[in-house]
Amino acid sequence: MSQTITSRVGVSLRSLLPEAKFFGGSDIFAKACCARPEHVLPGEVFIAICEDQEDGHDRVDEAIERGASAVVSEKPLPVSVPVCVVGDSREAYGQLCHALADQPTDRIKVIGVTGTNGKTTTCLLIKAILQKAGAKVGSLTSLGFDNGYDEQSWGHPTPNPAIMADMLSRMQYNGCTHAVIEASSEGLVKQHLAGVQLDVAAFTNIRQNHIELHGSARNYYRAKKKLLKYLRSTGVAIFNGDDSNCVRLLNQAEVPSLSIAVHGVGEITASVVERHKSEQTFMLTAGSQSVPVCTRMIGDHHVYNCLIAAAVCLVYGVDLKTVVRGLESVETLPGRMQRIECGQSYGVFIDQAHTHDGLAVALKTLRRVTHGRLICVLGAHESSDRVNRPLLGRVAERGSDVSLITMSGTGGTSQNEVVHDIIDGFARPAKAHVIPNRKEAIRYALSQAEIGDTVLITGQTTERLVSDRVEQSEPRDCDVTRELLYEMVQEEGTTPTTEAKVIAFPR
User: Which of the 8 DSSP states describes residue 324?
Assistant: First the structure.
């Protein structure tokens, strides 16, 4: 997808960025901009941004050689084209991208959702409710984006400002009345939402995560807090009243706010009535009204996601009955406590659970509905937070009866290191069964399951939604699991014992 955004009309940087200082001219008139020097086309304005691995200011000459007509930077530069100096070039980039796209968020209602866990599911629940209410809704999540005309895969939950502005502009052009955006902590730090104006900012939870990326839990909290800066003056923030960091943020927020809760106090609450492996029912209460909600997706975490989605839509005036119809219409999502049913006599669930907190929630949920053993297949991707890996092992050891550690990708030296890191979290490493081949690990787990048991398969985070297809480089866990289950069920109606090579990594 193009990293450049253009406009037929053009934008005056002096009007758009009144605090900026100009060198080599009194103003800069931009019809297109780009933040990657290798993508610059003649006549475009180059935005010099400091990235993780390089400083865009060091590549200004390259951008000018490719035809950049002007530069936006954070310091004066001795170059032959006009320079606009700003305090934050990331912020300026976002503002310019949305201005070139004719400010799409002026004509479409935008909801931003952030949190450690539950962002994607909450976004799609919000979308489902609003659609039941008659709205046309675009979305941009880690599963993909829907611009109101078609759905496409996307590799990141929060794309850069050029793509963000382009997507929102397409949603608005295609008649969308609302847009739901998943805001990752990395995207917030890099100000990928700069230029966006939110009607609602929703926080699912704020736990310890991405410490390697942000440096500390405090910095991670600050990253999530940045979502509030994109709220309109008339916007509303929604917080999880049972999450301590969300409550802390709620107490600091100087904007109209709502809170949701299951165990504590909130404007919108829920209480679980019953829960089985195949569904759960809870009472949703808003003000003086209470209604039952029956969902095919189970767990307290899903109740929280439903509450956040309900709160967002109640802000827009959607009635409670429509809220319930929307929540109940979402029966499954790829890799989100996805139940696999192929006639087997035990439960099988797929969950990405890429954080120790997410894994703990998944195991706790399934333990409550499992009468037999809980068998967990887990792995972590090479790019995962190394601080998180031993915690995954610790949670798996404590929360499951059998733990199988495998690769989440194609294997290799770095994948072996990932396995070692996970095993480091085990108090008794001998309890950790290692089967490097992911398909064989799943096969072995299924072969060990008996009536009343539950198998949880976690760690794969490569799924992308494209209509009813999924594009990715490796087989999906759900496809592999279904294939293996059908093989087992078809063999005279019994579940055969599979001999898998279980190894112990040298310490």
Answer: H
